[in-house]
Amino acid sequence: MDQLDQLDQLLATATPLLARVDEALSGVGAPGGHDVWRELRRVRLLPGDAARAVAALHPAPMLDAVPELRADARAYADLADALPPAGGWSGEAAEAYEKARRGAAEHLNGGPDSLGHRMEATADLADALTSWMLRARADLAATLAEVMLSTEAITLLADDHPPADRAAAAAAIGARLLQAIADSYDDAEDLLAGATDLQSPLSV
Question: Is residue 57 predicted with pLDDT exceeding 90?
């Protein structure tokens, strides 16, 4: 079973548990000072909604775009190389043409602001984000599998425990799920912040 199927199937099975976690946290709350409060501030979603947001990450379309982006980068490089030099020309017209040719070649496939470099940087970022999506889904699937087998899950799914015990159980499960999700999204922010080649406006 691949990670996509694993998370989707686990999430479907865990729907009643997640519903009880969200219901307890939004209705009863959690013990004061519990770690779940910090994780709720980081994610700003209840655990069930946060888990479904991760499950909505589908890396396949982004992965499919990478070869096309790299092909476009190569096409810009080939086009830059194909621009003919002035050859036997001389004089002001030849100098003006050569200046324009070099400028066009630089714009197509030169420094960090060139179209070719931007395409390669975009492909690199798409590759990195694809890997991140797969890791985020895998990490959530592993955490979800653990909490589904926990004593806290048994407490929440049973109807014979006092509200305080159920609130504590919901907080414990919620904290673990939200921490895994928040850590994954912190990794995504780092990836985007590191894509410095794509942060400046493209010159035209």
Answer: yes
Domain that holds residue 143: 3-63+115-198
Question: In angstroms, what CA-CA distances link 38 with 144, 176, 182?
Answer: 19, 11, 10
Q: What is the pTM of this model?
A: 0.82
Q: Helix (H, G, I), strand (E, B), or coil: what is residue 110? A: coil
Note the residue count of the chain. Answer: 204
Task: Give the per-residue pLDDT at 126.
Answer: 92
Element (H or E) spanning 70, and its range?
helix 60-82
For residue 75, the model assigns a pLDDT of 92
Q: What is the largest CA-CA distance in the chain?
A: 94
pLDDT in tens, 137-152: 999 999 999 999 999 9
* Torsion angle of C-alpha atoms 35, 38, 39, 42, degrees rounded to 10: -170
Q: What is the gyration radius of the CA atoms in the chain, in angstroms?
A: 26
Count of domains observed in the chain: 1
Contacts for 54 with CB less than 8 Å, ≥ 6 apart: 7, 136, 137, 140, 181, 184
For 13-54, write each residue's pLDDT tens digit: 999 999 999 999 999 899 889 999 999 999 999 999 999 999
**Does 81 fall in a domain?**
no
Does 98 reside within a domain?
no
CA–CA distance from 90 to each of 85, 93, 181 (Å)? 11, 7, 64
